Amino acid sequence: MRKKNVLLVTGNFPPGIGGMQSYYHNLCLESKHQITVLAPHYPDDEAFDAKQPYDIIRGRFFQNESIQPSGWGRMFRMAKKTIEERSIDITIYGYVLIGFVGWLLSVFGGHKYMVSTHGKDMLEFKKIPVLRTLTKMILKRADGVLTNSEYTRNLVEEYGVPRSKIHIVNPGVEEHFEIREKDPVLVERFGLKDKFVMMTLSRLVRRKGHDMVIQAMPEILKQIPEAVYLIVGDGPEKERLQQLAQSCGVQNAVIFAGRASDGEEIHKFYNTCDLFIMASRHLKVKGDVEGFGIVFLEASCCGKPVVAGNSGGIAEAVLHNETGLLIDPNSVEDISSSVIKLYKDDELRERLVDRAYKRAKSEFKYSYLASIMDSCISMICDKVRPTGRSAKVKESK
Ligand code: GDP
Fold it and tell me: Where do the domains of the chain lie, and which CATH numbers do they carry?
């Protein structure tokens, strides 16, 4: 396989935190192609960039991971310059709308591009006619589309993209996630000794369903008096969740740990909990949805049983009754009964944990997932775009 020069343009990249950020970073680390990333600035990006084996160019076209009106021109110029200077074979856009730059460079320069989507953008733009049309146009001209799950692939198909053009590259788990002892420092700091620790680790946004778990706590505490709900992460929902814990009378059993500082601390948190739960739900009005849910696999690699909201692409990350329990994220009753069931049934818990660990370790390795992405890139780069009469016939079909 000849190495291709690949440009990845994304607004979601470390040291920013989140699923997309770690997805792109790990694919870049494992890819056999020569990857250059065009990403936004973060306060501590220099230290991060210096450690990476691939090149990162930072630009001021995004603010808080959203593109600014003035950022479009800058992004276009930077992408064009990088493509020319580095003889880029193909560019991947890590969000459908920024693929508009790819569309322009394709129409006016014949440059190949792919769009990578995590589902949320597909849903968000469906309801706004002008964005829907733009999305369709960008997807139609793209040489390929990468999706994080079958669920997202189906959303892309709804825009009329043929399945043959869509390639699924699931998020993976970083190899360092492993089963360890509970971390004594965290146990001490948050008073977790002899507690049954249920944990959610995520940004504090509505979609993640922390509020439903808090509302399930009174019922859980009746059956498991030593239960605590450890919320790791930060975000706009924090205050509302704190108030909710008060009004449900469970403020002493809900712990807000704040944001985990880095990968090592995340690892310690996973290993310090007894059960990982995230009741993610589909927020239909906002078009907000979980495209996959990598945290469930991270928890599985640390040997923790998982309870997951059955929404979006989560049923691909967690197989119901095989690698965890899927629950109705809008049902407090379902949440409490599943937690209690896992707490009480040792045989069930061990079976799920064992299967989940093996699956996460074998099917979600970044080295394997990057090889899927690499093959798609090679295949698309080596394919000659139809030109002239044959192209016109194809376009008119
Ligand atoms: P998404 O961000 O909504 O796409 O959620 P995912 O579940 O797909 O991915 C979240 C990723 O961010 C996982 O790899 C988590 O380990 C990571 N993450 C979540 N919360 C924190 C945090 O507080 N600190 C750090 N360092 N990483 C976090």
Answer: 5-172+366-396 (3.40.50.2000), 184-363 (3.40.50.2000)
CA-to-CA dists, residue 96 to 45, 80, 150, 375, angstroms: 24, 18, 17, 21
Is residue 302 within 8 Å of residue 271, measured between CB atoms? Answer: yes
Block residue for tokens 């090889």: 371
3 state SS of 59:
strand
- Is 119's C-beta closer than 6 angstroms to any atom of ligand 1? no
Query: Could you give the CA distance from residue 19 to residue 4 in angstroms, rounded to a whole number?
Result: 26
The minimum-distance atom of ligand 1 relative to the CA of 295 is: 7
Adjacent-strand bridge partners of 200: 231
Q: Are 189 and 218 in contact (CB under 8 A)?
A: no
pLDDT tens profile 73-83 = 999 999 999 99
Confidence category of residue 179, pLDDT binned at 50, 70, 90: very high
Q: Is the pLDDT of residue 391 over 60?
A: no
Cβ count near 279 (within 10 Å): 29
Q: How far is CA 110 from the centre of its chain?
A: 31
How far, CA to CA in Å, does 60 sit from each of 44, 208, 236? 14, 30, 24
SS3 category, 228:
strand
Q: What is the pLDDT of residues 210-245, one digit of tens each?
A: 999 999 999 999 999 999 999 999 999 999 999 999
Rounded Cα–Cα distance for residues 91 and 80 (Å): 10
Nearest to 92 by CA among 31, 149, 50, 173: 31
* Ligand 1 contacts CB of residue 262 (under 6 A): yes
Residue with CA nearest ligand 1 atom 1: 19
**Mind giving me the DSSP string for 314-336?**
HHHHS-BTTTBEEE-TT-HHHHH
Q: Is-contact 353 274, C-beta < 8 A?
A: no
* 292-343 confidence digits (pLDDT tens): 999 999 999 999 999 999 999 999 999 999 999 999 999 999 999 999 999 9
Ligand 1 centre from 259 Cα, in Å?
A: 10
Q: In this predicted model, what pLDDT tens digit does every residue of 121-164 receive, in sequence order?
A: 898 888 889 999 999 999 999 999 999 999 999 999 999 999 99
- Higher confidence at residue 90 or residue 290? 90
Query: What distance in angstroms lies between residue 171's CA and the mean position of ligand 1's atoms?
Result: 12
Whether 202 is in the pocket of ligand 1, judged by its Cβ within 6 Å, is: yes
Q: How far apart are the first and last CA of the chain?
A: 33
